[in-house]
UniProtKB/TrEMBL annotation:
Protein name: Iron chelate uptake ABC transporter family permease subunit
Alphabetical list of InterPro entries matching this protein: ABC_BtuC-like, ABC_transptr_permease_BtuC
Family to which the UniProt record says this protein belongs: Belongs to the binding-protein-dependent transport system permease family. FecCD subfamily.
UniProt superkingdom: Bacteria
UniProt subcellular location: Cell membrane
TM regions (residue ranges): 33-56, 94-111, 123-144, 150-170, 182-203, 223-247, 275-300, 312-333, 345-364
Native source species: Nocardioides endophyticus
CDD domains referenced in this protein's UniProt entry, alphabetically: TM_ABC_iron-siderophores_like
Record keywords: Cell membrane, Membrane, Transmembrane, Transmembrane helix, Transport
Topology in membrane: Multi-pass membrane protein
Length: 369
């Protein structure tokens, strides 16, 4: 399976030799996709702010956004409660959805290049499992309660970083860090931490706590507010996307193989370590803010490569926009399908991602037949 994935990436890169130089029709296609996705994201934001238990017309949503962001003068044609619903409740939630979707998508791009496997996603390195263990400890046993306002986010982030460190140490014990060792170490650490989380739920004996942990494990944007975690998430996700875009050429080389990387003067082990730090930081912050959301980091990179080719300097920004749009729409469905009851957003992304995974496996099988 991994060899078939490498061959798919190799052929895609060979079919677009001018991408890294910014030549040919691929550049125009990328520009068109970026413009279209930005417009689609703006429309998605307006829809996400307007729909809900209390619907607000798109025109009023646009006026409220303009009033707060641009200071548009004139008499306000909306009431104070409507302003609070749009700006204080829904806007942070939509922004968090954009950041979480973009962060998971770009991390999925980096991981698939890092381990040379198109089935890789942020779950692969056990980062999600580490964050889940930290969050479960905070919810079930009150770890750090009263000492810090953002206990849940802090413990989840520390769990994610601890998991990343364990993955690196396990992969390092057998020698230099290769894609296969990193893959196996991530799977092993992830399963161990998942078992730890299950044990914490069992040991707590709290039915209400178990329900809270389960809802968080499936992901939710319900904690979004205008606060420090949202600002930190924005800073980390934007910075990670910028770094990965700048490292696009190195990701291209790494996706082809270690031998090619050595030939072109790139040290695969050192590059994987740097990528691991960036991915761990980004996924840790994202998961600590919104819980464990699956399939975004798996599905979106494939859609982005299908749109603009395999050159990572183009794939990363396109994937970020696609991931943002996907997760905001998933959140819209999660909070409107059974309103006023909200379902975990991870259920929506899994329903979308599972059929895609089956199609992807079928395609990979066809390439090896």
């Amino acid at each position: 399976m991994a060899q078939a994935a490498v061959e798919v990436m190799r052929r895609d890169l060979e079919q677009n030799p001018g991408d890294s130089l910014g030549l040919g029709p691929t550049r125009r296609r990328t520009t068109g996709w970026l413009i279209g996705l930005v417009l689609a994201l703006l429309g998605t934001v307006v829809v996400g702010l307007g729909v809900g238990a209390f619907a607000v017309p798109a025109g009023t949503v646009a006026q409220i956004i303009g009033h707060h962001l641009l200071g548009w003068p004139g008499e306000r044609a909306w009431s104070g409660p409507v302003d609070a619903i749009i700006w204080q409740v829904r806007m942070p939630r939509v922004l968090l959805g954009i950041l979480v979707g973009a962060g998971l998508a770009v991390c999925g791009v980096a991981l698939q290049a890092m381990v040379r496997n198109v089935l890789a996603d942020p779950y692969l390195l056990g980062v999600n499992s580490g964050a889940s263990t930290g969050a479960a400890a905070a919810i079930l046993f009150g770890v750090g309660v009263g000492a810090f306002e953002y206990t849940l986010q802090a413990t989840a982030f520390l769990g994610a970083l601890t998991a990343s460190l364990l993955v690196f140490l396990v992969a390092r014990t057998a020698g230099r860090v290769t894609s296969v060792r990193l893959l196996l170490a991530g799977v092993a650490v992830g399963y161990a931490l998942y078992a730890t989380t299950s044990f914490l739920i069992f040991a707590s004996g709290s039915a209400e706590g178990a329900r809270s942990v389960l809802f968080w494990l499936l992901g939710s944007l319900g904690l979004a507010q205008w606060n420090l975690p949202l600002a930190i998430t924005a800073l980390v996700v934007i910075g990670s996307a910028a770094v990965l875009t700048c490292w696009g050429r190195h990701l291209d080389v790494l996706a082809i193989g270690d031998e090619t990387a050595h030939t072109l003067g790139v040290c695969p082990e050192r590059l994987r370590l740097r990528l691991l730090v960036v991915v761990a930081l980004c996924v840790g912050v994202v998961v600590s803010a919104a819980g464990s959301i699956g399939f975004v980091g798996l599905v979106v990179p494939h859609l982005a490569r299908r749109a603009v080719g395999a050159t990572h300097a183009r794939v990363v920004p396109v994937a970020a926009l696609m991931g943002a749009i996907l997760l905001v729409w998933a959140d819209i469905l999660a909070r409107t399908l059974f309103q006023p009851q909200e379902i975990p957003i991870g259920i929506i992304t899994s329903l979308v991602g599972a059929p895609f995974l089956l199609v992807l496996i079928r395609r990979l099988h066809a390439t090896t037949a």
